[in-house]
């Protein structure tokens, strides 16, 4: 059996496109939406390393499992939907706490997905493909096209918040600009870039862990705070 | 005349008063049903457990203004309105929108299923959006609490061509509103299956806890994403009856030596905390093995097994290796198991490993590799691939056989459930049926056949006057249903068949089943090894194994 060398976890609210991002990358297609049950495990060969990727369910129902999927993760991809500001808020409220079980030197990527839904909105401002029947019927004062709801700066601000939360120094981690992505699983825009950038960053982490000895030992000793309080399974 | 074992063949004389049974349009004859126009809560049109509501002064009982409840109800179930809507309207595709009770398309659905909280908060509706239905659901809550306030429970309302069945399960209320010929008991069975599905994702305890803490909690938040599973469950009743109707699972037809070898393989491949391993293809069982340390004293309920078989068929499990909590409502409605689900070798063959340890994913993944290797050694992949590839509907990937295999001209379809299985595996009720072929390839034709089977089943199992044999000449087919101590059988025959011809066909079919039974059924399910010496660390484990205990 191939033993995974490093772990990457996809987190984010339901319907932001976590599964679609991964399918786009792994299988080069954009399949019909399915609602993930629990978490799905994939193994990706990158150079000579086996990187495991956990695609988790965004549904609140499976929230309790989140910290388990994150245990010992080398990188976490926090995904939101650029058309729904609430999905970025949820990342902070519900998902950031789950990453407490990740490695102490865990990398964070902030990914705004579904930029394809904005594009014609910004290009031509006129009559839009009815993004939701409510828009068509409403005809309210604003134009029917969807204005970009979450700006890249918001993601960068969130990234800095994470560093603060993790008590990490900005100098020790990759710059925010490097770790914030805007993608479209539908068109494939930036998807390869996202995963491959991350893989390349995870490899040195793997090497460092190997040098430090068995990762389990490191994990246990490096947790100073009782993890339980944060795991949030009982909210 | 030999039609199978020592049971009398359906000679015309035996079935004298049963032949050509015409089904009454309603089930009033079986007692319980009352015909009346719209269900009026102020009237006695309710089938109840005990007392008669109409004896009570209505003003005392109804939590709703009297003027409001009946008018809503009438508007909803106005028979005239359902007349001008097509019976067999395509049922798919419109799940997302509508839901306004005045919407023609919504009203034309043959069967609605609703789930709501005790406080009347909508949780699920088969059709339409639950938001649009809050008024309708309010009426349902009113009906229920109206009867409840008299210390009674409402079970069903029979209204002209509709049956309304109510089922209260803890803080959840389930309601079916149906124009299908299904009996109230069958509808109740469907509602129970819907409830089991909800419990399997949340557990009964966590549902109870949520509503104890906050009565008007919106449970949709937690069920989000599970609606499709409920939709699929309800659709399966209309498209492919059998599992729910007969309370049995369907097996993949497979040569016995191979099935036995696979069973042995599953028992050999274990992992810490592993409780149950199941091999399935397209919702049909290949074989299963229970681990004695966890499920020693407990039998796996067939309803739980069927639930798992449906569950692993979800599109979410088509890729990757999944790890998710699942509750087996019959085994323990309050605790979770953790399930490893994967397709083997990119085949439709699905392996499910159920354990008690939430952290055991990698152990299960290792176990899966053992199973996979073992199957390669056995050459099982090819055989299972062949079993899976025979199908008229390759898209379904369901292993099946053609009714032609029976070699009985005139036979179109059948459901056969053996009842003479040895005692030690009564825990695994099974049935077999061939692929639905022409003329039952279209949706509405399948629905019609499903309706006929449901009618026959309701008659055979009528609580007041059960029948053993029914010969029914329908408009476009002839049906024969027969229950003995050895089997339960439903056959669908060509409409031109004579009674003598039908008996001949059934005789042939029974002979064929006898000949093929080793292949069609798991005759000798894997025996679980000797029980553990000490009953430690066993069945109570699932109840406290969860880091996932709900919100």
Automatic annotation (TrEMBL), chain A:
The lineage of its organism: Eukaryota, Metazoa, Chordata, Craniata, Vertebrata. Its EC number is 3.6.5.2. Residues 131-141 have a biased composition (Gly residues). Its cofactor is Mg(2+). PANTHER family: DRAB5-RELATED (PTHR24073). Its main location: membrane. Gene3D superfamilies: P-loop containing nucleotide triphosphate hydrolases. This is Ras-related protein Rab-20. GO terms for molecular function: G protein activity; GTP binding; GTPase activity; metal ion binding. The keyword Ubl conjugation does not apply. GO terms for cellular component: early endosome; endocytic vesicle; endomembrane system; Golgi apparatus; phagocytic vesicle membrane; plasma membrane. It comes from Canis lupus familiaris. It is found in: Cytoplasmic vesicle, Phagosome membrane; Golgi apparatus.
UniProtKB/TrEMBL annotation, chain B:
Residues 1-13, 56-67 have a biased composition (Low complexity). InterPro entries: FUZ/MON1/HPS1_longin_1, FUZ/MON1/HPS1_longin_2, FUZ/MON1/HPS1_longin_3, Mon1. Residues 278-369 form the FUZ/MON1/HPS1 second Longin domain. Residues 540-551 have a biased composition (Polar residues). GO terms for cellular component: Mon1-Ccz1 complex. It comes from the Eukaryota. Residues 410-517 form the FUZ/MON1/HPS1 third Longin domain. Residues 111-233 form the FUZ/MON1/HPS1 first Longin domain. Pfam families: Fuz_longin_1, Fuz_longin_2, Fuz_longin_3. Residues 45-55 have a biased composition (Basic and acidic residues). GO terms for biological process: early viral transcription; late viral transcription; protein targeting to vacuole; vesicle-mediated transport. Residues 1-106, 524-551 are annotated as: Disordered. Belongs to the MON1/SAND family. Plays an important role in membrane trafficking through the secretory apparatus. This is Vacuolar fusion protein MON1 homolog. It comes from Canis lupus dingo.
